[in-house]
Q: What sequence folds into this?
């Protein structure tokens, strides 16, 4: 199997291209192929795949894609390996066109360094022939396009080096057509023009060589307003003198200019600028790199100040200025990878992309080497922590780094001797200057009293002042006094951090009044939605209209900035706007809207839950609302995605008063999803609310179910006495109803608790009680799971052969009915029994399949347990490094779940 990325993404087997049509799988494979052998974190993969706005189901979807890719690669040398926080694509040498390209280029450079020019040209030509198009040309993802740019730059450099070697071999005429095509495709790259002038001159075509220089001069003048470099001008002079040109030109180190544009009308911050200037004067006398840290709260103007000052002093750093936004406090919660930033900086400073180190420490060392003798200014914006930025602090003695952060970064003050500039809110004079600059001096002076009131209301926060100024600018006919009056009269919450003097409700009211009647009604109803976001169907249910009818209203709210489309078809309302919306809603219309929303989500969620667990016992539903249209998911992955996207909404609805009939149904449909995620404390609280609801309603069968579910959750939380008490209550209630299925469920739960308490023989008895009742009612999956439980307890009692018999019978039945959860649980039992018998290969085979299933199912606790068990076996057979790898994965998941097993695994790791 060979992976091809130098063109469209393709996988070839035995000389034939195989299909890889699923777009998301192609995206995952492409991102892992960006830097094979280098780990890619799950957060980074998710951020790339969904361009910074992932759905809540993103992690599950990613795991599913990786699982399917692994199955596709079975039997080949290509492997996707798990890492504690992500994945890595392992591509052995010769199994991808990129690795072959890099091998040939390295061989060509080695030959060139040894002056074996003919061999070097041959290797370079072989490498260039592997390209059939742009890198991963059919995958449009940010990291792919960034890497494509790096590799294209590297490919051009290889081509230029190859052509230089051709010239040194005397192939002057032969390379002219290729150079002519190269300058036509890349007219702003000066080296190819110089090579073309050299080739033409040496081929006896002096006039054409001089004409080429004139064409270069015109291109640079028209497009950039600059003249050719000194090297090009010297080459022209030598040709004019009719002398033989010097050896082919060599590349000069680029000078990056990456600073963003400054903000027009910058005002204030005189004290901060003075401190920065004083530090700059001290820095010039120091033998080490300089570091300034600008800190302060959100909205205080850190970036504005840093960029403004950097542009003022840029001319003192003639070797360039580098800039990166590290997104330390990005709303998505995902920070920029320092390794990616290092690669960008190295490339900008002239490192060929194919020579950029993949290792973070090696990248830092490479940047330090490049900056050792240069004077470069670096601005690292929006840093989250000292650890986040340290790999980028690699400047030489002539370099200065400016860092901005909401964090104080005290560690840098100690270890790096950084100078700190902490920004405070503007004083009254600076705030007036900012507002005056934004709204204009005439308007400010004309309404000076109102202007001063606005300044006071913003409490010196530049962001708040900018918001007020923008409102004033949007409504030039409104008196500033009316803005000031509204800010005083209607206080909803502060625009600045914790300052109640800055008002928001008045701002919201101005936009609300401009809405159409239908748009205003939808705005009022959206506030009762309890989740962080909603889709078109949920908005339609709230309004009691169709999706086609609600879409124009959503568009209207988005246009007026009262709603934000966070992803295609998904909308979110700011918390302050939500508070305002709730105040406006009439109790009657709000209650009716919630009823319609519950009908939509319960009926859709019921269908999704049946897809996730097809053999699960059904529950009854209320009569549907005729105005609500349900479009249930069609696949298990889509069902899990549906739950992930709406978890907070579904849980939030269970807190509502007056909807008991739907509360217990919400608990039912959420059980498997939250259990898979390991959100057991959430499940406990949810089912306590469900139990209270069904008790009020007097539905005894659902009381028994709620007790059973509470028992199962308490068992996973190792609250064994509570779990046993809940199961006993469930058994008593089921007996009172003559419900054999309920009794069987209770017995299987009692058996599990007894097993956990160490009463293995009693647990076997309970499991057999469950089996008998399941057989009477024809409940196949229950019978199989009871068999598995019995097998587990036999293994715990040391009767491993009997355990295997029970589990093999259970496994056959579960596979026949397609019960993946049960299959995984039973394979786990078999793995345990095989391991105790010393049949380690059989045990590992079972656990590998468990890991595959759990990564697909998304059951994080079971996945952590399977990692731990697999590690234990590897430790037993002396494969200590592999054992540690699995234990690290297990510990990471247990810690995410806040599970006590995390400490157990950490103890094994030492």
A:
């Amino acid at each position: 199997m060979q992976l091809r990325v130098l063109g469209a993404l393709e996988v070839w087997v035995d000389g034939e291209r195989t299909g890889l049509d699923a777009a998301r799988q192609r995206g995952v494979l492409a991102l892992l192929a960006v830097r094979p052998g280098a780990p890619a974190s799950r957060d980074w993969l998710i951020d790339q795949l969904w361009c910074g706005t992932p759905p809540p189901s993103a992690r599950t979807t990613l795991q599913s894609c990786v699982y399917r890719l692994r199955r596709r690669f079975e039997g080949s040398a290509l492997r996707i390996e798990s890492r504690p926080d992500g994945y890595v694509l392992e591509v052995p040498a010769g199994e991808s066109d990129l690795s072959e390209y890099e091998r040939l280029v390295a061989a060509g450079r080695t030959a060139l360094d040894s002056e074996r020019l003919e061999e070097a040209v041959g290797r370079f030509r072989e490498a260039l022939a592997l390209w059939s198009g742009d890198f991963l040309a059919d995958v449009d993802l940010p990291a792919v396009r960034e890497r494509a740019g790096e590799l294209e730059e590297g490919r051009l450099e290889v081509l230029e080096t190859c052509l230089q070697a051709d010239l040194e071999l005397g192939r002057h005429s032969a390379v002219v057509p290729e150079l002519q095509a190269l300058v036509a495709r890349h007219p702003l790259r000066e080296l190819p023009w110089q090579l073309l002038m050299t080739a033409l001159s040496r081929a006896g075509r002096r006039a054409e060589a001089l004409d080429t220089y004139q064409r270069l001069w015109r291109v640079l003048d028209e497009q950039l307003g600059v003249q050719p470099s000194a090297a090009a001008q010297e080459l022209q002079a030598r040709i004019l003198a009719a002398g033989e040109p010097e050896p082919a030109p060599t590349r000069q180190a680029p000078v990056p200019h990456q600073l963003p544009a400054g903000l027009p009308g910058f005002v204030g911050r005189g004290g901060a600028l003075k401190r920065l200037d004083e530090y700059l004067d001290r820095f010039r006398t120091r033998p080490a790199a300089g570091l300034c840290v600008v800190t302060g709260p959100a909205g205080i103007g850190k970036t504005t100040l840093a960029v403004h000052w950097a542009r003022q002093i840029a001319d003192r750093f003639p070797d360039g200025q580098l800039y990166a936004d590290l997104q330390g406090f990005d709303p998505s919660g995902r920070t920029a990878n320092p390794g990616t930033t290092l690669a960008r900086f190295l490339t900008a400073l002239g490192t060929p992309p194919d020579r950029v180190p993949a290792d973070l420490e090696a990248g830092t060392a490479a940047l330090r080497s490049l900056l050792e003798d240069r004077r470069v200014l670096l601005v690292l914006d929006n840093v989250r922590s000292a650890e986040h930025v340290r790999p980028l602090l690699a400047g030489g003695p002539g370099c200065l780094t400016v860092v901005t952060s909401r964090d104080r970064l005290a560690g840098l003050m100690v270890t790096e001797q950084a100078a700190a500039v902490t920004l405070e809110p503007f004083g009254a004079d600076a705030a007036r200057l900012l507002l005056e600059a934004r709204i204009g001096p005439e308007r400010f002076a004309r309404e000076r009293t109102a202007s001063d009131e606005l300044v006071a209301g913003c409490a010196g926060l530049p962001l708040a002042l900018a918001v007020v100024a923008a409102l004033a600018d949007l409504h030039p006919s409104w008196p500033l006094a009316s803005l000031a009056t509204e800010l005083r009269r209607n206080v909803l919450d502060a625009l600045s951090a914790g300052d109640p003097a800055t008002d928001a409700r008045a701002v919201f009211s101005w936009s609300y009044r401009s809405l159409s009647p239908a748009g205003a009604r939808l705005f009022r109803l959206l506030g009762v939605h309890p989740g962080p976001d909603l889709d078109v169907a949920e908005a339609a249910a709230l309004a009691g209209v169709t999706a086609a009818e609600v879409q124009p209203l959503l568009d209207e709210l988005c246009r007026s900035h009262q709603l934000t489309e966070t992803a295609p078809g998904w909308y979110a309302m700011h918390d302050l706007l939500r508070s305002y919306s709730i105040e406006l809603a009439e109790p009657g219309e709000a209650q009716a809207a919630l009823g319609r929303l519950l009908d939509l989500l319960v009926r859709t969620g019921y269908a999704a839950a049946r897809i996730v667990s097809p053999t699960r016992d059904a529950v009854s539903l209320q009569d549907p609302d005729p105005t609500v249209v349900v479009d249930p998911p069609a696949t298990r992955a889509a069902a899990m995605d549906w739950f992930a996207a709406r978890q907070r909404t579904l849980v939030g609805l269970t807190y509502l008063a007056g909807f008991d009939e739907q509360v217990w149904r919400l608990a039912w449909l959420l059980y498997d999803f939250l259990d898979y995620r390991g959100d057991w404390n959430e499940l406990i609280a949810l089912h306590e609310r469900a139990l209270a609801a069904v008790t009020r309603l007097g539905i005894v069968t659902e009381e028994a179910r709620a007790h059973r579910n509470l028992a199962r959750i308490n068992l996973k939380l190792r609250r064994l006495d509570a779990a046993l008490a809940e199961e006993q209550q469930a058994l008593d209630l089921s007996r009172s109803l003559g419900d054999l299925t309920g009794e069987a469920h209770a017995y299987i739960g009692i058996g599990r608790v007894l097993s956990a308490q160490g009463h293995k023989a009693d647990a076997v008895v309970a499991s057999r009680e469950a089996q008998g009742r399941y057989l009477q009612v024809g409940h196949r999956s229950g019978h199989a799971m009871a068999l598995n439980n019995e097998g587990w307890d036999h293994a715990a009692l040391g009767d491993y052969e009997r355990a295997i018999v029970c589990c093999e019978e259970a496994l056959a039945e579960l596979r026949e009915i397609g019960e993946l959860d049960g299959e995984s649980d039973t394979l786990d039992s078999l793995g345990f029994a095989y391991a105790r018998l010393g049949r380690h290969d059989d045990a590992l085979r079972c656990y590998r399949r468990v890991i595959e299933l759990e990564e697909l199912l998304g059951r994080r606790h079971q996945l952590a347990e399977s990692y731990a068990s697999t590690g234990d076996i590897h430790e037993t057979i002396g494969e200590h490094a592999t054992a540690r790898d699995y234990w690290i994965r297990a510990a990471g998941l247990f810690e995410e779940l806040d599970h006590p097993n995390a400490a157990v695994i950490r103890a094994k790791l030492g």
About this structure: The chain is about 65% helix and 5% strand.
